[in-house]
Amino acid sequence: MGAQLRVYKRRIRSVTATKKITKAMEMISAARIVKAQRAVAASTPYADELTRAVTAVATRSNAKHPLTTEKPGASRAAVLLVTADRGLAGGYSTNAIKQAAALTERLKAEGKDVVTYIVGRKGVSYYAFRNLEVANSWTGFSDKPTYADAKTVASELIEAFTAETGGVDELHLVSTKFVSMLTQNAVDARLLPLKLDEVQLSDESEAKHQIFPLYDFEPSAEGVLDALLPRYVESRIYNALLQSAASEHAARRRAMKSATDNAGELIKSLTRLANSARQAEITQEISEIVGGANALADASRGSE
Question: Which SUPFAM superfamilies match (predicted)?
Fold first, then answer.
C-alpha cells in the first residue's frame, strides 16, 4: 500500500510541474495577444488608404496592368499558406492546412496546377512528411511578423506572377482571421489578379458610403499602378500575417488554459486517490496493531 501512495505522490508532483508550465505559457500568450492586436490596428489605416488608392486608379482609368488583368486560359495557381512555427496552439495550424487542402482541390477541379508556398514550420513539416511539393517556404517569424518579412514573401510571389514563362496565373492566400479571443477562422482569398468588386475596406459600412475624389495621375495611370499594386499585395500579406499571429496566440492561450484546467482536475483526482490509499494504509496498520494485541491477550490467557 505504501508503494501505491508513493506512485500517486510522484504523479501529483509531475502534473503540478506541468500545470505551472502551461499556466506560464497561457499568461505569455495572453500578453502577446494584446501586442498582436495593436499591430493589426496600427496596420489597418495604411491598408485602407492603399486600398482606396488602388481602387481609384484601377476603376477610374483605362489602364491595363498585369496585376489587374485576368489571364485567358489560366492553368497555374499559387497558394500561400500561413501556419505557426510552434505547436501547442490547438487546431490553429491544422485548420489552416485543411482550408488550403480544400482550396487546392477546388483549383485542381478547375483544371489548374497548384504551386504551394508556406509560412511557418508546422505547414512545412506537414507537407514534408507527406512528400508534397513546396515551391518555397519561410519560417521563424509567424508569431511576430514584420513588414520586411511580408515584403520578402510578396516579392517572390509577385515575381512568379509576372514571370513570362514558368510563372503562375493566380495567387491565393490562406490564413487565419482573428475575430475575437474565442473565435479565429481559417479563410482563403484571391490576391491576384485583383478583383475590384471584392476589394473591401476593413470597415464595411465606411466602404459602402465611400466617395472617391477626382484624381490626376502623374506620370501616368500605368506608372501609378506599377508602384501601388505591389505595395497593395505586400500590405495584404502583412495584414494576413498579423491576423494569423494574433490568432495563433489566442489559440495557444485557449489550449494552454484548457491544459491548465485539466491538470488541476487531474491533481484533484490523484489527491483523492492518494488520500484513499493513505487512509487504507492507516486502517490496515490499525487492524494489524489490534490483531497483534488480541493475539498477545489470547496467548496470555492460554498460559494462565
Answer: ATP synthase (F1-ATPase), gamma subunit
